[in-house]
Write a structure and sequence with these properties.
Length: 695
């Protein structure tokens, strides 16, 4: 795609009232002093295509309009437009973009006010309805991003327009299939496989983490091995220890056997004494059975004496509970009906107020009806024309009177019909409200009757409760005391006391059995002491035996830790080999990338990598002169030449050409760059006005 400018027209654009520049598709110089409008021509062309100036500012960021020097404000009611005649791949086309002021007269105001702006577009002399349709035409020739790269030498190489990361990405895309890079990828396929999509820096960080972990684990493992060797116990003679344990066990078993023989002799004596004691216990149990029978008989006498009085007291308590429940139920009914009556009365009061309001409205409608019926037609004609002053013909006046009377009658009828309709609806609503109010008054009467009935029940049951409370309860204590004083109860008491004395005599146990039990317990304690002493001695001896087992386990663990240490050392060595291999790949890739990129350029070189103070390689992207002067230290002419070199390369890559504008091009000569694209240099020169010179 090749685009060339044949002619560019400006009207009221950035201070230019009207101008036409004829380029004829050729290279040209725009010469003039500072402020004469050279950069405005560049801005006009980019605004025409994309609605932005060459610095990517939209109309809201830079002033399109031309300022009136006498007022300091833009000239009002002016359209601002740029039009260009272009040759696109050999075909002629015309584009126009217009910035239009929108003026409207607000309601009630005398003068118009500006309410905003709108844009208008035309392609080849035909209006384009929408911005989207216009943008589609321009994008069909060349995308905005590509156009910016091809038309401004500084756009790609200056950070103010393109961030270095985007710049680097674009350059790498140019050489992604370069033979130099392909050779490096084949030679270091193993490194690329280990990268697994990560950046080299991330891969190095991962290796550094693995190295640190392996070093730490290796040091910790070696330290544990040293500590375990220092803590190894000495070897022990296991056979001698086992002989000593067997000897102690034999002595303990002999002593325990002698004590058990004494215990068996005491057990036989205790068994003989226990047989005599069992007969005594049986006799004592029979006596206590007789005591229990006497106690039950006394309890039956007391229960029988209190039976009638207890039943009478229970019946009195049940009657009181029932009466209290009836009182609460009647009180609840009274409270509920009172609440219902209060709510209904309150609602009835509100309805009476509403009915009064509706009756008042109905009276007002009656007054309005009578007033409308009493209205008479009045008409005062204007018999003289307000414009020419001549008398209006009588038939015209009469016709106007008839029309006015007809309008009056129709209007009055409509008003009266509306009043009658509203009155009928209001009367119907009042009738409905009267019926509802009558029903609510019935509810109040019913609730009042139920409330009085419930209050009467409360009074009745309260009186009944008073009567029950006045009845005395039977004195159970007195009745029980009288029964205890009876002959039958007292005879049973005497029998119980005699049986208790007899049971006490048979409960005493012979003292010789207690002594035998004490001796038996002492022998059991001696047996436990013998066994505990042997256990302590055996545990001490077993500790000596376990030393040999612990030593063997420790030696096996040391061997395992030595194998782990070797694995950590091997892993550490592998990380170091991978790290060195990655460093080789990075250097080879750096060389291949820079060789491939710089092989495409003639007037510039590209620095794609840099090294930090600690020697790390970091990514960058900066253009330099062929002798290594970085962009930040170049003069303006050298910067433009480097930018033109990029435009040449990128133009060949994308297969497109667009007009190139070079601002501040005083030091740029025609032979300073090599491109088939149209070049327009903006040159500061002490001339009376802006001058276009084609080349």
């Amino acid at each position: 795609m090749e685009i060339r400018i044949n002619k560019l027209r400006l009207r009221n654009f950035k201070g230019v009232r009207s101008a036409e520049y004829v380029f004829g598709g050729r290279n040209a110089r725009l010469e003039g002093p500072n402020g004469s409008g050279k950069s405005t021509v560049f801005d006009a062309f980019t605004w025409l295509l994309f609605g932005k100036d060459h610095r990517d500012q939209t109309a809201t960021s830079f002033e399109i309009k031309t300022i009136d020097p006498s007022t300091g404000k833009p000239f009002p009611r002016e359209d601002h437009w740029v039009e260009a005649e272009l040759t696109v791949d050999g075909a002629d086309h015309t584009l126009r973009r217009t910035w239009i002021e929108k003026w409207e007269k607000p309601t009630g105001e005398v003068e118009d006010v500006m309410t905003g702006h709108a844009s208008a577009f035309a392609v080849d002399g035909v209006d384009v309805v929408t911005k989207q349709a216009y943008d589609t035409v321009v994008a069909g020739w060349m995308k905005e991003a590509v156009f910016k790269l091809l038309t401004n030498p500084l756009y790609f190489i200056d950070d103010a327009f393109t961030p270095w990361k985007d710049r680097r990405k674009a350059l790498l895309n140019l050489v992604k299939d370069a033979p130099e890079r392909e050779r490096v990828r084949e030679e270091y396929a193993d490194v690329i496989e280990r990268l697994a999509g990560r950046s080299v820096e991330d891969y190095r960080k991962l290796l550094a983490l693995e190295k640190a972990a392996n070093k730490r684990d290796l040091a910790q493992t070696l330290s544990r091995i040293d500590g375990m060797r220092e803590a190894l116990p000495e070897e022990t003679d296991g056979n001698a220890v086992r002989v000593r344990i067997d000897s102690m066990r034999s002595k303990m078993e002999a002593a325990v056997g002698a004590l058990k023989a004494k215990a068996e002799e005491i057990d036989r004596a205790i068994t003989s004494a226990d047989k005599a004691d069992e007969a005594r216990k049986a006799k004592n149990a029979a006596i206590w059975s007789e005591i229990t029978g006497a106690q039950l008989a006394m309890e039956r006498i007391l229960a029988e004496a209190k039976k009638g009085a207890l039943a009478q007291n229970n019946a009195r308590d049940e009657d009181r509970i029932r009466v209290r429940a009836n009182i609460k139920a009647a009180e609840a009914v009274s409270k509920g009906e009172r609440a219902q009556m209060d709510r209904t009365l309150a609602e009835l009061g509100q309805m009476e107020k509403e009915r009064g309001r509706m009756a008042g409205t109905l009276a007002e409608l009656g007054d309005r009806y009578r007033a409308e019926k009493a209205k008479a037609f009045e008409y005062t004609p204007d018999t003289r024309c307000p414009y020419c002053g001549q008398e209006i013909p009588a038939e015209t006046v009469e016709k106007a009177r008839a029309e006015a009377q007809k309008h009056f009658v129709a209007e009055r009828k409509a008003v009266i019909d509306k009043i009658l309709t509203d009155a009928r609806a209001l009367k119907e609503d009042i009738g409905k409200m009267d019926a509802r109010m009558a029903g609510m008054k019935d509810i109040v009467s019913q609730s009042e009757a139920k409330c009085k009935e419930a209050q009467a029940d409360v009074a009745k049951w309260t009186a009944e409760l008073g009567r029950l409370d006045a009845q005395p309860a039977e004195d159970l204590g007195a009745i029980e005391a009288q029964a205890r004083a009876g002959d039958e109860y007292r005879a049973l008491q005497r029998e119980e006391m005699a049986l208790r004395a007899k049971a006490l005599q048979t409960a005493n146990r012979p003292d010789d059995v207690d002594e035998l039990v004490r001796q038996r317990k002492a022998i059991e304690d001696q047996i436990a002491d013998e066994r505990a002493g042997f256990a302590r001695a055996e545990l001490e001896a077993q500790g000596a035996l376990s030393v040999g087992k612990v030593r063997a386990e420790q030696l096996a663990l040391i061997a395992q830790k030595e194998r782990e240490a070797k694995n950590f050392a091997d892993a550490l060595a592998k990380c170091e080999r991978d790290e060195a291999r990655a460093a080789e790949y990075v250097q080879a890739d750096i060389n291949s990338v820079e060789d491939a990129i710089n092989g495409m350029f003639r007037a510039s070189r590209w620095k794609m990598f840099d090294r930090t103070i600690d020697g790390r390689v970091v990514e960058t992207c900066e253009v330099t002169s062929p002798d290594g002067v970085p962009y930040r230290s170049m003069n303006d002419a050298q910067k433009v030449i480097c930018g033109m070199d990029f435009i040449r390369v990128f133009s060949e890559h994308c297969g497109g050409q667009a007009p190139i504008f070079i601002d501040n091009a005083e030091g740029i000569l025609r032979d300073s760059f090599d491109t088939p694209a149209q070049v327009i240099r903006l040159v500061v020169k002490d001339t009376p006005k802006l001058t276009l010179v084609t080349e």
